[in-house]
User: What shape does this take?
Amino acid sequence: MMKNILFLLLAIITLACTASEKVQPESEKSTNIIFLIGDGMGLSAVSTGFYFGDQPSVFKRFYEIGLQQTSSATHKVTDSAASGTALATGKKTYNGAIGVDTTKTSIQNIAELVASMGWSTGVVATSTISHATPASFYAHVELRSMEDEIAAQLLASEIDFFAGGGRDKFNMRKDSSDLLLLAADKGFIIDTTGLPTPGTLSGDQKYGFLPEPGSMPPMIHGRGDFLPEATTLAISHLSQNQEGFFLMVEGSQIDWAGHANDSEYLVSEMLDFEKVIAAALDFAEKDENTLVVVTADHETGGFTLGPKTGATDESGYSDYSAIEPVFATGSHSATLIPVFAFGPGAGEFKGIYQNTDIFHKMAALVQGE
Ligand code: MG
Ligand code: ZN
Assistant: This one.
């Protein structure tokens, strides 16, 4: 009798193993990563779409949500260079550092890691493409202000696709060299006019799109759909690589609106960034093999959605019927930052952790740990 039960158990275990082996081939393919960073996007910025949007907030499409702490190695309140480097490399560093640790030694970032595995990589932003956040994913310099050097490092990097502002950092440089003329030697086709239709880019070619000399214009000054369109173009280009791809897209100017304490600017940048998130999620839902992670590098402005100040209703109670966006500071803040994840590995992003853990979670996923 005992022998029979043991045999039965063994048979069940064997069957169970065979069953799990059968689903293996699907998960053997690398999981693409689309990493979306709203610079300065705290929880109140995330909340704006719930009150000021004309359609349901895109954040409602996420079910795996966590919180991250953003402090740098040197300061409780981080800057975008140290936090960008923490997210990109998994190491806390000093405020102002791009891709280097506290001893100013270069550290490998997630884009370099996956490029070494044969993946394609891209960065998209509405700041100059050599600005701190995108730079953290391809450059290694002691100070974020070294944008001419950062631009040169971009063309020498493994990045296959970039789009953003900052053409002047390539062809109006202090050293008066024209990097756009050298870009072809580095394997890039550079377009300074705008974005082409998705599907028209060659899979074995690198591309850079630099439609503006400085930053891209704010939404309230007519940027239009540059950021969602550049995101869609990047995904369509990078996803031609069957090995996998990594794409970082930054909603750069949410931060600038926070510094300016300008709520109209902030809401318009958030609604634009929501379109980017929607484009990434639409792709990931169809693809079923793409992780989408949305977070910020830190909060900016101490932004919150207060009630209209001083207003009372007929009965003398505070009138909470209308929202008045308010700011507590013109600087960054140290508040915890939400992390939203969708796709394979998304469950790993639940909980409360350091910004550096986001790199480690992504690296573990791509390395199959
Ligand atoms: Mg930034
Ligand atoms: Zn800032």
